[in-house]
Amino acid sequence: KGCDMTRPQLKLRQTARDAAAFAFIACATLHGGAQSDMSRTEAAQMYTAAGFMIANDRPVNRCGQPVKPRVTFVDLNADKRPEALFVDEDVRCYAPAGRYFAVLVKEGNRWRAAISGNGSIQAQPTRTAGWLDMRVNDAGCTRNFSFTGRAYASAGGCAGETLAAASPA
Questions:
Q1: Is 45 left (phi over 0), alpha (psi -120 to 50) or beta?
Q2: Are 49 and 111 in contact (CB under 8 A)?
């Protein structure tokens, strides 16, 4: 199943050939194992930016459980510098979807989240401000997101709903 990428994103998968190797390296680096271009400090900062706390030198989810999220590097804005997609699965922690994601952007030597949340995320073939648009599905609610210059923002309520129905009364 990978990271729920669809057929239009096959090119993105090719861009991220080293994803499995990176996931191991990032975790190993964080735990003091394998050597890589990423320092232990950068790996820890990256996990923190993705929404994971570091406890006893290990990333944990918001429920305090140790995690080993899948990390994929994908160039979302065609600048030849990949962004990082984190996907963690834990049915008890991320109910009802059972999945959490975060897309990180590197600025200088720091990573920051451009979008994160529960559910599954899919890159779309369309672009806004040079960045691939995203579709997020969480508990049957599908929302489209586009890049606003610094982060992704929702284009409105769930697909099939009117904005009035999606707004709190």
A1: alpha
A2: yes
What's the one-letter identity of residue 128? T
Token duo for residue 82: 């990949």
Structural tokens at position 8: 């239009």
Strand partners, 54: 59
DSSP notation for the chain: -TT---GGGHHHHHHTTTHHHHHHHHHHHHTT-S--SS-HHHHHHHHHHTT-EEETTEEE-TTS-B---EEEEE-SSSSSS-EEEEEEE-TTTSTTTTEEEEEEEEETTEEEEEEEEESEEEEEEEEETTEEEEEEEETTEEEEEEE-SSSEEE-SSSTTS-HHHHS--
Structure tokens at 51: 């929404």
Query: Taking the complete model, does pTM exceed 0.90, yes or no?
Result: no
**What distance separates the 2 farthest-apart alpha carbons in the chain?**
54
Residue with tokens 């140790």: 66
Q: How far apart are CA 48 and CA 124, in angstroms?
A: 26
> Which tens digit of pLDDT belongs to each residue from 10-40?
334 333 333 332 333 333 333 332 225 789 8
